[in-house]
Amino acid sequence: MDCSGLLCVSYKKAGLTLPRTSAEQSKFGNSVKINQLKPGDLVFFSAKKGRRKITHVGMVTKVENGKDIQFIHSSTKLGVVENKNYYHGIFVKARRPF
């Protein structure tokens, strides 16, 4: 399962239908600044540092000290995993879909 599919399934169980791709999901809901993230928010990433094209999405699971962000996502090599600050250099934006 890819990253956007994981979030489609997860949010569907909570009664919310998300668009299918990470690029489409990045336009859904309201924009959120990185220092205002809460569990359930979507975080979007590019393939390389400095790029703005959305290629990956995750869902925030925990925020510590207002800046240490944990999120789940689906990795093609590892499956569904939880990371902390792993994608910091390629973060593009965040959205609150609810």
Give the helices and strands, then pairings.
Layout: H1 3-13, H2 22-25, E1 30-32, E2 42-45, E3 56-64, E4 68-75, E5 79-84, E6 91-96
Overview of this protein structure:
This protein is an alpha+beta fold. 15% of the residues lie in helices and 37% in strands. It is built from two helices and six strands. It has helices spanning 3-13, 22-25; strands at 30-32, 42-45, 56-64, 68-75, 79-84, 91-96. A six-stranded antiparallel β-sheet has the order 1-6-2-3-4-5. Strand 4 (68-75) and strand 5 form a beta hairpin. It is globular and about 30 Å long. The two termini are 23 Å apart. The relative contact order is 0.26. The mean pLDDT is 93.
Give a brief description.
This protein is 15% helix and 37% strand.
Labels describing this entry:
alpha+beta; 2 helices; globular
**Uncertain runs with pLDDT below 50, 5 residues or more?**
none
Overall number of strands? 6
> Helices and strands: which structural class?
alpha+beta
| Terminus-to-terminus distance | 23 Å
What is the H/E string?
A: HHEEEEEE
